[in-house]
Each structure stands twice: as structure tokens, then as C-alpha cells.
Amino acid sequence: MSVNKAVIPVAGLGTRFLPATKSVPKEMLPVVDRPAIDYVVREAVESGCDDILFIAGRGKEAIENYFDRNVELEQVLGAKGDQARLDLVTETANLGHIHSIRQGEALGLGHAVLMAAEHVGDEAFAVLLGDDLIDTRTPVLPRMIEAQSEFGGSVLCLMEVPPETISMYGCAAVSPTDDPDIVRITDLVEKPPVEEAPSNLAIIGRYVISPAIFDLLRHTPPGRGGEIQVTDALQQLVSLPGDDGGGVTGVIFRGGRFDTGDKLSYLKATVTLALRDEEFGDEFGDWLRQFVGTGQ
Ligand code: G1P
Fold first, then answer.
1. 133: Cβ below 6 Å to ligand 1?
2. Which of 47, 109, 127, 239 is at a distance of 20 to 30 A from 215, taking alpha carbons?
3. In whole angstroms, how large is the CA radius of gyration of the chain?
């Protein structure tokens, strides 16, 4: 059975981007000409998950509005005969089937995922975290969905990171398979101190998860940071028998990833994608080289 539901948690307060995020959800900050969340939803839909469920918090209405029709704007653009812009605003309203529920209290990523239980039902589902943008040139979610149909259970996206940065991520202990890009996960730990990390394989914000996780999440106590962690529930799936929806496989991702989670990495993502822009990328590159050369 193929995976067609994607859960996208968007309840975070975005405190690292204050004051901008005082009144604008961090997911709506533009990366070049689209809000960051647009890239993530497109990735889900292009991977076959056209049923999208946002797990939202208070003050996130702008995200729902972005993926809804804006009839007034459509009428104004239509009357002007501005078809190109009209296409831009109608296109985002037609990306997949968008649903949204409220998390109420932000008790952690595991808690956010648990909120999706009723909508998801008894199928494997994808989870995409908005801070990680995956380069469209090197997609990974379709490969993960394929791995899930091959091995069952759940599938995580793992990426080698410099060992000293592993404490920013969930970390996996793994054993190899015949395929260099596929590993069996033998243990998981959320944001371990460097000296306790079982590897330098970090969990990146793309998951394909067995519905067996919901029962586990209902009983998962708060972990790292006092929050209910999805990594802790996945860790319990590692040792659960395959017949009960257990087993966790890792897909090693060697492609491009842009982090939009803090100001510096957000700027790097913006510059990288701006340099690729068909309309002004070359001109921006010329300017940037000159700017870096002269320092102004
Ligand atoms: C979350 C997960 C962590 C994962 C990371 C990927 O952490 O808890 O396991 O490695 O996303 O971006 P966060 O960055 O939300 O604190």
C-alpha cells in the first residue's frame, strides 16, 4: 500500500526569528519568493502524498490562508488580465488536499504527531519538518516510501553530520545491509551529548512512520527538553516485532539539504536558492561576487 498522507507539524513558536515571528508564522518567511512551507508541501505532493495535515498552533492562520483560495485577489488579477500572477495565486490553492488541526498545547514533536492519529488511521504516513528543506534535485521521500513498502515498519532519513554537531539531532545506531544507502536501525537517541552518541548519523526531518507509533506515543513520557519526543517512540518501534508494525529502516541521504531553522542557515538557504533562480540568479551571482570581492 502506498503512502499518501503527510503530516506537517507547524505549531512551533519560531522564537529564533523574533521579532519577525511575533506576528508572522516562521513557516511563512520567504525563501526567495515562496514561503518556506510552500517548498515542503510541494515536496510531499510530488512524492505522492497529496493528503496534507498541518498540526498547527495559535497564530498560524496565515498558513491555511496561503493554501486556500483568495477570491478577491483572483478577481483583481483576472480583471487586469494578469494571467501569470493569477496562476501563481491559484496554484498554491490547488496543491493537494489540505487539512489542519490544532495542537492546543505544544508538548513536543511526539505529541504533535499523536494529534494526527485519527486523521491517519491505520496506514503508514509521512512526516515532514518545515525547518529542513530538501534540494529538489536530490529528492529522498520517494526513496523512503519505496523502502517502507519493501521492508514494512518505519523509515527514517539519516545523514552523516560532523560528530560535534550530533547533539542537535536525533541519532541512530545502525547495522549495514547489502545496499550502501539502506541500514537497519538498532537504536535511537534524541540529541545525545557528543561523547554518548552511537554514531554521527543524524535524523533529518523526513519520516515514513508505521501507525503502530500512535499507541506508543500515548504512553511516551516527556524526554529530552521535557518534551514528548517522536524519537523516543520510534526507539520503541525498533524492538517491536514486524507483525506489530515494528522495525525501523534508515535511508542514508547524501543529497542537498537546507536548514531554515536559524538565521544564519536561513540566509545560506536563501542565497543558495536565489543563485539558482532562472530569472535573476546569474545577475545576483555577478553582484554577489563583486560584493564579496569589495566587501560592500
Ligand atoms: C527534531 C527531532 C530530531 C531531528 C530534527 C531534524 O528536532 O526531534 O530528532 O534530528 O528534528 O531536524 P528539532 O530540530 O525540532 O529540535
1. no
2. 47
3. 20
